[in-house]
């Protein structure tokens, strides 16, 4: 999840992120992390 944390620190409201990868790469873990953490780091 280091990558997820790093990417989260680079995003700002209004950014679009395309997350592409395989289940084998466990990309869903990054998506789940973002869904949980993004609202806390970027309140609207």
UniProtKB/TrEMBL annotation:
GO terms for molecular function: acid-amino acid ligase activity. InterPro entries: Mur_ligase_C_dom_sf (IPR036615). This is Mur ligase C-terminal domain-containing protein.
